[in-house]
């Protein structure tokens, strides 16, 4: 998938979980990505973060450390 689409999807997930009460949003984002993104998508995210993660929400950046 294009990096732009991946960033958009990951940021949408972060936006949703930031509005939810309770648990840390980064934990929930990491859990969602582990559960619903296929291995290639997770690998692409890790690679993108490794290159700087331009445009990713800070919640996603923190979540990427948990995946």
UniProtKB/TrEMBL annotation:
Pfam family, one: FdsD
Keywords: Plasmid
Record InterPro entries: Formate_DH_dsu (IPR021074)
Domain of life: Bacteria
Protein name: Formate dehydrogenase
Organism: Ponticoccus alexandrii
């Amino acid at each position: 998938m294009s990096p732009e689409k991946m960033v958009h999807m990951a940021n949408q997930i972060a936006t949703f979980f930031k509005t939810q009460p309770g648990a840390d949003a980064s934990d929930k984002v990491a859990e969602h990505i582990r559960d619903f993104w296929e291995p290639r998508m997770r690998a692409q995210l890790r690679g993108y973060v490794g290159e700087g993660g331009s445009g990713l929400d800070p919640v996603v950046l923190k979540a990427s450390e948990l995946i």
